Amino acid sequence: xxxxxxxxxxxxxxxxxxxxxxxxxxxxxxxxxxxxxxxxxxxxxxxxxxxxxxxxxxxxxxxxxxxxxxxxxxxxxxxxxxxxxxxxxxxxxxxxxxxxxxxxxxxxxxxxxxxxxxxxxxxxxxxxxxxxxxxxxxxxxxxxxxxxxxxxxxxxxxxxxxxxxxxxxxxxxxxxxxxxxxxxxxxxxxxxxxxxxxxxxxxxxxxxxxxxxxxxxxxxxxxxxxxxxxxxxxxxxxxxxxxxxxxxxxxxxxxxxxxxxxxxxxxxxxxxxxxxxxxxxxxxxxxxxxxxxxxxxxxxxxxxxxxxxxxxxxxxxxxxxxxxxxxxxxxxxxxxxxxxxxxxxxxxxxxxxxxxxxxxxxxxxxxxxxxxxxxxxxxxxxxxxxxxxxxxxxxxxxxxxxxxxxxxxxxxxxxxxxxxxx
Length: 422
Ligand code: FES
Known about the structure:
binds FE2/S2 (inorganic) cluster, five-stranded parallel beta sheet, 14 strands, elongated, Rieske Iron-sulfur Protein, Rossmann fold, 18% strand, alpha/beta
């Protein structure tokens, strides 16, 4: 290999991996497939055990176990996860995003799932250098796969306005107590059903078994999938009912929460974290799953911070795509100095005004939903400037300039170039 230009090196891959999950492997190759390519000192790869490497635009997961090298595509079949950043489980590579496994040398899926495979590549050691063929020795194969029902296209079925009530209070159903927020939610739903002719359903988060968000988004935005990764992999996850209501079934979502230590309930936040997959579709695919839908809120508590709780809920639900009616929440609390919670319950039980407030929230929400449904146009796009996770052109130009300067070997004070305030 002496005198031959090095075409790749493991250390070149310091940026985020590029993923081409939908392209045939042939299209990804931009170099001769006939030659062996020098990846670098074999000893380096041996010491690393598992790492990423590349030949031009082709990315590989290189392994060495018991002195035997393996090379497969770095791009996982599932959602493009970087296999070379995963871990080894025996002879199998475990994807760091959702734990799919592929044989580190053959690329075949784990036992029972051999119908799936990532491309494998020949490797050999010559003169202490690790060489690889860019042309795959075996192809990528996707196992037959039935999409999750939530993944179907979002299309409103005809019929009356549909109202989903989400009660987020924590409850021991075997020994139930009177929940002020849930009681008012039931009043609002009864109004929607009996007075407005809506279809309704009540979902109590306390009755649903669902796990907390496991932070796939923290690995990579691409790892946070729709439907939610947890929902796809755990058939017992019951948050499916809430996703179904939010994205597919409901025109109106009424969310009821108690105030706990100045915040919405813990179950509310557990649900909200799991909705990151809905928001993330906007960020990574420019795909808005929730359109022409309305959210209203019922907030009750013995102590205060109604405006703080409402502010969080309004921002969150509008950020995932819901519209808000005029006066989008009704609320009740007895204030900072009140500790007599039994009085709070008594007040809510006795207050016809609060019940009428809940009914009117249902009316405002259903009326707006009717208008939105009647005027719905599906293809509206929202300009991304100023929206979450949208990088401005001026920012890109600045960082491109910094990168170019670094490449030219100039000393660059990055803070100055990107405009340090003051
Ligand atoms: S398991 Fe690899 S991307 Fe999901």
